[in-house]
Amino acid sequence: MFDQHVQTLRGLQASAQTTSELWAAATELGYADAALPELLGGSGAEIGDVAEIVRAAGQVCFAAPVGIANLVIAPALAAAGWTPRPGMATIVLTEKSKRVVVEFGHDADAVYTLAARGQGSQLRELDPTAADRQPAGMSRPAHAATIDLEQLPVLRSADLDQPIEQWRLLLALEAALQIDGAIRHLVSTTVDYLGIRQQFGRSLLRFQAIQHRVADLSSRASMLSHILDEALDQAEADTETASVVAMVAAVEAADLGGYVVAQAHQLHGAIGYTQESGLGMYSTLIWQLIDRSGSSLDWSERLGSHLLGDRDLWQSTVPCGSGVVPSTSSAG
Amino acid sequence: MRLEPAMPEDVLTNVQQARADVRAFLDMELRGGGFIPTVDSWMRSADLDFSARLAAAGFVGMTIPTQFGGQGRTVIERHVVSEELLAAGAPIAAHWIAERQMAPLLLRFGTDEQRQRFLPGIARGETPFSIGMSEPDSGSDLASVRTRATETGDGWILEGRKVWTTNAHIASVIIVLARTDGVHGDRHSGLSQLAVQLPTDGVTVNPILAFDGTHHFNEVIFDGARLPRSALVGQRGQGWAQVNAELSHERSGPERFLSMMPLLRAWAREIDSDASEAERAVLGRLTARLTALRRTSFRLVWGLQNGEDVARAAASVKLQGNDFEQDVVASLDSLIGRINSPSEALVDLLDQARVSAPAATLRGGTSEILRTIVAKTFSGS
Q: How far is CA B164 from CA B43, B131, B274, in A?
């Protein structure tokens, strides 16, 4: 299914002329509301299936918010008891309401915000129709916009029981899945390029210095998929370990994302710097995902704070499994 | 859907039970003063009494078939038990090499007589093994070894010199990589493995002391040592292939990223709830990387158990594990000064770790060699 999603999303992206067209095409194929129960018009996909879509979106650098629509907006609206409005929505978690960078803010029909409120959180829907949407900056995707949220009319507001940290983690997990897809693309295309590009009479991949860089790149990149699989397993089991593993995924994704972008640029040489190469598109995607969801330092601090306490580090992060009791013979 | 199939439920249950059981054993040992945790315990901390107790509790020889005195359990169960032993810093060096790779070698390539001779002792934690591979002129380039086994009427005569032979001074057996056929320049072709039981006339073991004064490395000199014909392990001339089969077991092991876990664990216990942002960030970052390594390694061992060729994947995990271990030491070294009155135990662990750290990217395959192996996945060779 993953490969199929990659092909489909890539095809949609190649045909659409605008973000709105792309969103409409994605919606028609069920990508916008895959996580919604069938009763509400979605396909009732499980989190693992939705994760495949998000990874595929990252792999093709998909310029419409299928990931956050399914993994963050849908559950937020469900928690508020709101019916989704037609059109493309985006969401931003913010402690400040002045000028913020809003992913997909350039063309969004609705902007949702999540902020801390007491022990829980507050969801607001803002109307960006008349907003002054400024470009977000050269290092960000074209779909991002800088918007003064204070200037936007509030259409509705709801207090949610879920603490803000839960939404923060969900946004980070969505970003991690996209990063996983994106770095798969980057590693694969980088190796392809190195096999083709020749200097000194042979392909770059024949040089030991290059081989060693590729070895570091691929061995680091391959670990993210494994930890994301575990995060998805734990999410379905809804255990105490789930939040730890999700934070681990957030740390690793942010760290790896920056690293892979830097290595991909180094290995592509000057050609990677051109608009034509497409490498820049993935660079800005990954940088934006890290900005939106938190750097590896941010998540490392959060994870470290979570781990502090009376519990032993090893036993708290490597559980035996609930209900497992040592057999008496092992204790001697 | 996950990108890889999940482990079957019954396998997961057995794995969790094995972990719970060995954890209970270790808790009991620590409460009773059975050992003091060390870093690198699989190399530097040999205690035959502990190995015997561990074996009696069913945690040595786990993958050796019951007909040879083993537990007849799976590779993945042994893996999680190993994780717990390493994380606890338990003194497992006496039986580690024997169980980790010599038992699989004998099971795969040994004769019935060799299996009967050695496996029961390995399963009881009584028969320490050592690996005789590196030589003064042959480190990363093992195919260039010069030690020679010359066939005689009733066996072999062994001549040569091995170095960095871990725990040869306590070993009952050294498995030696030697040339039995061809000439020195033939490289991989003509190499064989021979089991040298100690003591044997003509075999001398001399210590190579580390710069901290500890002794686990040795030089072993073979000067006309006579071995019986039955010393040959596996097929004559196939030593290189056999050694490579062993390396998957060696490189896929959790000791490649858990050797410093006792230090990380002790440090995490001693940083207070008012720990600085720097300490929290380091704790989070190292735990994240450790978790990713554990998960990747677990998947790899599952593949090994199912007969997959994991040589390159094992090299990949070891490569990352090497860097991680040095990162743990460097990070904690830079932060320990912020702890008011660190315990003697923590200070000792850091001392050990500082001395061990340089070896992390050298032993069992240098990071440079590992990068070359991983790169072969892409360069088509």
A: 12, 9, 44
ipTM: 0.88
Taking an 8 Å cut-off on Cβ atoms, the answer to whether A211 and B264 are in contact is no
Probe site for chain A from B53, B295, B370 (most A CB atoms < 10 A): B295
Residue of A1, A219, A316, A317 best to disrupt the B interface, most CBs of B under 10 A: A219
Query: What are the tokens at A157?
Result: 């507001």
Question: Residue length, chain B?
Answer: 381
Distance CA B200, CA B210 (A): 26
Distance from CA of A89 to the nearest CA of B (A): 26
In this prediction the pTM is 0.90
Which tokens go with A283? 């660079």
By the 10 Å C-beta count (0-12 exposed, 13-18 middle, 19+ buried), B282 is classed as: buried
Cβ atoms < 10 Å from Cβ of B183: 9
Region A177-184: mean pLDDT is 97
Residue B249: which of B103, B370, B65 has the closest Cα?
A: B103
In this complex, the residue of A2, A212, A314 whose CB is nearest that of residue B261 is A314
* Range A275-283 contact pairs with CB under 8 angstroms and sequence separation of 24 or more: A278/A61, A279/A186, A281/A61, A281/A141, A282/A61, A282/A182, A282/A185, A282/A186
> What is the rounded CA–CA span in Å between residue B367 and residue B319?
6
pLDDT tens sequence across B303-317: 888 888 888 888 999
Please name the residues in contact with B144: beta carbons below 8 A apart, sequence gap of 6 or more.
B137, B138, B184, B187
